[in-house]
Amino acid sequence: MAARDPICQTKDLTMQKQEWVFIFLLVFCWVCLSIGIFFFWRLTFLGLQQIHPILPRLIGIILAGFILLVGLGIALFLRILILGKDSWYSYPLRRLVTRYLFPLMVIVGRLFRIQEERIQQSFVIINNRMVKIKGLSVHPDRIIILLPQCLQNDDCKMRITKDIRCCKKCGKCQIGEIIPLLDKYNIMCWVATGGTLARKYIAEYRPDAVIAIACPRDLSSGIIDCFPIPVYGILNQRPEGPCVNTLVDMDRISWAIQNFVSLPKQ
Ligand code: SF4
């Protein structure tokens, strides 16, 4: 039996608190969008009437149709999330939520004084749920692991950004623990000094899937930029503050590799 994702220890379909933040904002975004569009329609009503008497009604029907379509998209997206079953329409819905609604959710979240980092975390968790529902099975050649440079011990002089195997496995950071996993599954791994470099690696290699370790901000922007390539995001821990001597849950990296990499038959 496949191991459970360490982040969902109880039941795979149990929604976590962070996920409810995302769902609340998603629905509220739709409400705000509907109100904004209605006011736009009301403001332009007289102007449209002067052009042609039927125009306000026609534009109203088109805008109402657009609102209903987005609402239906959100409802179907939530259905996939809650039932945990993939569907043929999941791709356009992921696109709608990832590309268009998530930036709006950050703005709406500010109105409720929800920390941006909390929204980014919830987005990463929801994205991971969608990746799991999709059920990836990728050849080791077609998946890459991206690590942030801040996982490396701050005093270490080894140039692991050129080649992670330059690491001497001295035990001062977790880079040395990750290398045996890469060797076991023969997976490519890059250490990126920032989001720009990570995006460059992905654009050059065009993998079928990515396992990325980073902070909520970098992970959420990376997931958006890489779309439609599925990115399974693992949030790093920052006991000494951002960007220095960060840690990662090794169980989650192992879990992701075991579940998304399909080893070729011998
Ligand atoms: S484990 Fe590797 S990367 Fe980490 S401090 Fe030691 S040599 Fe440097």
Would you give an account of this structure?
The chain has 266 residues and is an alpha/beta fold. It has 2 domains: 17-132, no CATH class; 137-260, Rossmann fold, CATH 3.40.50. Helix content is 56%, strand content 8%. It has 8 helices and 4 strands. It has helices at residues 17-51, 55-83, 90-111, 116-134, 175-185, 195-205, 216-226, 250-260; strands spanning 143-148, 188-192, 209-214, 231-235. Strands 2-1-3-4 form a 4-stranded parallel sheet, sandwiched between helices. β3, α7 (216-226) and β4 (231-235) form a beta-alpha-beta unit. The longest helix is centred in the first third of the chain and has 35 residues, at 17-51. It is elongated and about 75 Å long. It starts with 16 loop residues before the first helix and ends in a 6-residue tail after the last helix. The model is unreliable at 6-12 (pLDDT under 50). Bound molecules: iron/sulfur cluster. Iron/sulfur cluster binds next to α5. The site of iron/sulfur cluster has 13 residues, from α5.
Which helices and strands, and how do they pair?
Elements lengths: L16 H35 L3 H29 L6 H22 L4 H19 L8 E6 L26 H11 L2 E5 L2 H11 L3 E6 L1 H11 L4 E5 L14 H11 L6
Parallel strand pairs: 1-2, 1-3, 3-4
Helix pairs in contact: 1-2, 1-3, 1-4, 2-3, 3-4, 4-7, 5-8, 6-7
The protein binds iron/sulfur cluster (SF4).
The site of iron/sulfur cluster has 13 residues, from helix 5.
How many beta-strand runs? 4
Small ligands present? iron/sulfur cluster
* Total count of helical runs of at least 4 residues: 8
- Secondary structural class: alpha/beta
CATH architecture of the largest domain: 3-Layer(aba) Sandwich
Specify Rg, calculated over alpha carbons: 22 Å
Q: Report the CATH C-level class of the largest domain.
A: Alpha Beta
Characterize the biggest β-sheet: 4 strands, parallel
The helicity comes to: 55-70%
Strand content: 5-15%
Which sequence of SSEs, written as H and E, runs from N to C? Answer: HHHHEHEHEHEH
| Strand order across the largest sheet | 2-1-3-4
State the end-to-end CA separation: 21 Å
Tally of separate domains = 2
